[in-house]
Design brief:
Length: 303
């Protein structure tokens, strides 16, 4: 292992290429998580509601069950991140292994189901490509180090969170909370920042957006963001320390403004449509992980 790490250290481009291929394969799985995790969560919520109604409101079960869009009894099959196997949502044809190859599989199929020719979203190869490029860049930046492995783990989580938030306006605790605790644990020995900076960063990240949320709600009576956004900023506080939180907030606001204005100008949305803020925090936090210290130093030098 030490010989491999030494070889990769002397040939970063080879390491980056290997990392790209590995990450693109993982990106294919991330697509599955983005699609299936919200479905699994909704089924779990429905099961909990059914159990509650059966135990405490038996008299209300039948009239409420009639109003359910999709009763829990209509989900008899096992459903998780592995089962059922990938298949066309229209014709049910199972996807062959070679058609599951990252990026190449979609190109071979020309973006259509091999059986019924239903269009397959270009988002799948795009996520695989972006995952590969992001991890390849991390390989060049960190080299074959523990920091690279940890930054890769965080990046995978951010990609899933971004995809789910764009689809569902949701940042699942199943991903944000493990990333938060992992950030605190890895910094016990000062991997990225000191333990003190990590703990203060996690608390400050959560409390800062929590305060904005309640201030906005008290003034307007509306909710400006979700609790998942607080937790995601706390994740970056735990990983990168409290010092980079102002930069992350500023960058996320800037990225959000640019993308939001672009969507309004192109009439993809109007100004009344809610826009998920999680993807902007994720992008800003990832940028801060790479260049945060340099940006912070430059900003302070201009004051």
């Amino acid at each position: 292992m030490s010989e491999f790490i030494s070889t990769m250290s002397h040939n970063l481009w080879l390491f980056a290429m290997i990392s790209f291929v590995f990450a693109a394969v993982i990106g294919s799985f991330l697509n599955v998580v983005i699609h299936r995790l919200p479905v699994m969560m909704k089924r779990e919520w429905q099961q909990e509601c059914n159990q509650y109604l059966n135990e405490y409101h038996e008299a209300l079960v039948k009239p409420i069950a009639k109003k359910l869009e999709k009763p829990i009894d209509s989900y008899p099959e096992k459903y998780n991140l592995v089962i059922p196997h990938s298949a066309c949502p229209k014709c049910g044809t199972h996807i062959k292994p070679w058609h599951n190859l990252p990026i190449l599989g979609w190109l071979m199929l020309k973006g259509k189901c091999a059986s019924c020719k239903t269009h397959i979203s270009a988002r799948y190869p795009v996520i695989e490509l972006l995952t590969g490029l992001a991890i390849a860049f991390l390989a060049l930046h960190f080299g074959p180090t523990i920091e690279f492995a940890l930054a890769t783990t965080l990046t995978f989580g951010l990609i899933v969170l971004t995809g789910i938030d764009l689809d569902e306006m949701l940042l699942p605790d199943q991903i944000t909370l493990p990333l938060l605790w992992l950030g605190l644990i890895i910094n016990l020995n000062g991997t990225f920042v000191s333990p003190t900076d990590a703990i203060i960063g996690a608390a400050a990240g959560y409390m800062s957006l929590w305060s904005v949320f309640w201030g906005f709600k008290l003034l307007t009576g509306k909710e400006g963001m979700g609790y998942g956004d607080f937790k995601l900023l706390a994740v970056f506080g735990a990983w990168l320390g409290w010092q980079l939180l102002p930069i992350i907030v500023l960058l996320s606001s800037l990225v959000g403004a640019i993308i939001g204005i672009g969507l309004i100008v192109t009439k993809k949305i109007n100004h009344t449509n809610p826009i998920p803020f999680g993807p902007y925090i994720a992008i800003a936090g990832w940028i801060a992980m790479i260049w945060g210290s340099s940006i912070n130093a430059w900003y302070l030098s201009t004051l």
